[in-house]
Specification:
TIM Barrel, single chain, 11 helices, about 270 residues, alpha/beta
Length: about 270
């Protein structure tokens, strides 16, 4: 049973321009969800970054709706106050409006999420509106959108030219117009993040879009210094070095096993 004090969509929307800033962290399993809940994080995003961060795929395009759903269920079982949002992966909403509504509904009905995140904007307004009209809250995602990585030629900062900046602003406005409750702004100049934030009546969540947005998101593994992949974005700040500590701990365990130190009498029944 979910905690009665769980963060709600209206609460997130009400913090637009008023604060406190919205804190969002990606989350892929039950123990991480417990940590985020106890730490007072507002939104746990089960992102399609699951593909690279937790499943070892080369890019987000490889993860399926079934795989994301599996992890959404695990995160939701923590039952804490954090709002759970499920990221809709590649091909879970693009083929048709019917497909989008059905898959989005599964993330809530089976997964226990409170909302879904969809990339795009102007090109899929009808889809976004249909999902919202089905009673499913939607968070948008504009700027650098990972599911279109090949279109943009890789993970690059977007919106540096006037034309592209206008297109991204239009995408954000399209999400607002279609009924989204918030929009993620990824990898764009801070000045554009500020401009979009001031233009929209719904909250913006920055993923490398500067300090002027209504909230910030960080990938769990990046935050804790556990990013073992080749990409280390400029916007990431490591608040711990748990990756190195984990290697050292396992190395000590292996050494003690090989030397016959572990288990000792105190560890035996």
């Amino acid at each position: 049973m979910a905690d009665a004090g769980r963060v709600t969509i209206p609460e997130i929307v009400a913090r637009k321009g008023r604060g406190p800033k919205i804190v969002q962290v990606t989350c892929y399993d039950f123990p991480t969800a417990v940590v985020l809940g106890r730490a007072g994080v507002d939104i746990a995003m089960v992102g399609d970054s699951l593909a690279q961060v937790a499943l070892g795929y080369p890019e987000t395009l490889n993860v399926t709706a079934e795989e994301v759903l599996h992890h959404v269920k695990a995160v939701s079982r923590a039952g804490l106050r954090t709002l759970v949002v499920a990221d809709m992966p590649f091909l879970s909403y693009q083929p048709s409006i019917e497909t989008a509504v059905r898959n989005a509904g599964r993330f809530l009905q089976e997964g226990g999420a409170a909302a879904v995140k969809i990339e795009g904007g102007r090109d899929n307004v009808a889809t976004i509106k249909a999902v919202v009209d089905a009673g499913i809250p939607v968070m948008g995602h504009v700027g650098q959108i990972p599911q279109s990585i090949h279109r943009f030629g890789g993970f690059v900062v977007r919106g540096e030219t006037p034309d592209e900046a206008e297109q991204i602003l239009d995408d954000a406005l399209a999400f607002e117009g279609a009924g989204a409750f918030a929009v993620t702004l990824e990898m764009m100049p801070a000045s554009l993040g500020k401009r979009i934030t001031e233009k929209l009546a719904i909250p913006t969540i920055s993923s490398g879009a500067g300090p002027h947005c209504d909230g910030q998101v960080m990938i769990w593994n990046d935050l804790l210094g556990m990013n073992f992949g080749p990409v280390h974005p400029t916007c990431v700040k490591e608040y711990a070095t748990l990756g190195d500590q984990a290697v050292q701990a396992v190395r000590r365990f292996a050494d003690e096993v090989r030397r016959g130190v572990y288990p000792g009498p105190e560890h035996s029944y």
